[in-house]
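Data deposition worksheet. Section B asks for the primary sequence of the deposited chain exactly as it was used as input, without tags or linkers unless they were present during the calculation. Section C holds the resulting structure in token form. Section D is free text for depositor observations; keep each observation to a single sentence. Incomplete worksheets are returned to the depositor.
Section A, Depositor: J.P.
Section B:
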Amino acid sequence: MEMNDLLFIYRLTVTLFIFSFASYYDIKKREVNDLIWLIYVALTLPISFILGDEWNLVIAFIPCFIFGAVLYYVFKFGGADAKAIWCLAIALPDFPYETMFVKPLIFPLSIAFNAVIISIFYIFVNIYNNIKKYIKDRKLFDQNLPLKVKIMLFLFSQKLSKDEYFRSNFYIPSLINGKYNLKQDIREIDYNKKEYITEWYEKAQPFLVYILIAIPITILFGDLSMTFVSIFMKH
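Section C:
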């Protein structure tokens, strides 16, 4: 095994360990100490200089920095999510091997895109829970809401009783004064201050878990978004 292969295995091992550790805190607290990301960078950044790979590092970091910033400032993701993508670009700037489908052009960015795709599947969890609620109560919407609001609630939120809400964590009200709450900023929410103000809630997702899942998926299958695009173009 060549030195490049050994160094990639080292980078990947550190990455999986760091993201496993960070995912644990993301699940438990929805926040991650910045020290974890500093340790991650310290353990992986020197490899790019050892390999003389600084140019690939720059090429990977710039779009990942922009994507992370967009997630944070536009889509209001947590700060740890943006930092994770930035650090991922430093730790794994490229992938020198083949994949089953479309090979990532920018490896860390493909991981981030794949994580977003994987996170969408949480919609099916909401659908399942809301169908169960409807079967149990024979009723889902207690208010005369517009159809588009009902669809958004059914897909992106869960109907919770007061007891269910206080037994659970990290839920954000989806309905404020009969309108879908699009202005919520999870970074400003104190999850310890619980207040049952509606029946509909959206659960803040641990995005770092999705990134962790996306790493081996990207290694095996490549860029899922580009794969879907190529399949669509062929048809």
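Section D:
The chain has a mean pLDDT of 93.
The CA atoms of residues 174 and 180 lie 6 Å apart.
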